[in-house]
Amino acid sequence: xxxxxxxxxxxxxxxxxxxxxxxxxxxxxxxxxxxxxxxxxxxxxxxxxxxxxxxxxxxxxxxxxxxxxxxxxxxxxxxxxxxxxxxxxxxxxxxxxxxxxxxxxxxxxxxxxxxxxxxxxxxxxxxxxxxxxxxxxxxxxxxxxxxxxxxxxxxxxxxxxxxxxxxxxxxxxxxxxxxxxxxxxxxxxxxxxxxxxxxxxxxxxxxxxxxxxxxxxxxxxxxxxxxxxxxxxxxxxxxxxxxxxxxxxxxxxxxxxxxxxxxxxxxxxxxxxxxxxxxxxxxxxxxx
Length: 288
Hints:
Blueprint: H1 3-16, H2 24-30, H3 35-46, H4 50-68, H5 73-79, H6 85-96, H7 100-106, H8 122-128, E1 134-138, E2 141-150, H9 156-165, E3 177-181, E4 198-205, E5 217-221, E6 224-232, H10 238-253, E7 256-257, E8 262-266, E9 279-287
Antiparallel strand pairs: 1-6, 2-4, 2-5, 3-4, 3-8, 6-9, 7-9, 8-9
Helix pairs in contact: 3-10, 8-10
């Protein structure tokens, strides 16, 4: 399937199950994607998370019910899996700037189209149009570091790297460093959203039999085939590269994502987070 077919199939699944207890993970399974990869792909293409999209569609469906049915307001909210009358009213007011009761009394029918155009920001497309990966096979790598939890909306990785960098032994300072988004991690709620936590790992490559300090952990990065992208620029613009990879390159590439960790690799070409000439290698696991 191409990118529009994948997203379209997920949306059809959501539309057909608005009145059922579905999660972002269910939508991923409906299009035969791993949840880990699909929630990132969906966000890049649609501009919002799967969980946010589902909640938004339930609210527009609730608005339709309010103006086209005589159901009790609380029954409408509960049937669309809002936990209580209070949570339904709060979510509805955040979206429509009025309570469900006010909306029904006014007889307003202002259903807001929630399907955002599956287009990437122009700046990402223009900036990264010439970005092509190297398909490479790498051996397994052992790294030593710290595991931490991060969110989409937060910036926990900066603090984690600052903490880790103070602990790197002098003899390892010249080694490659890795930022890993762990494929096996789970979020703190069923629906992934911008405050959902996932597991990440900041580490440095170590040789075999290296003595590991008690405050450090060991992680093995699987060898195999990867699509290797190189981001050039400041860390602040890294998100544009990810948007391009997920929203433009992958859907057209013909490659299937493998169920391994993807990661960033920092070599001597990484000259600082604010240097426009700094480079970060990004590895995505693919099946061939």
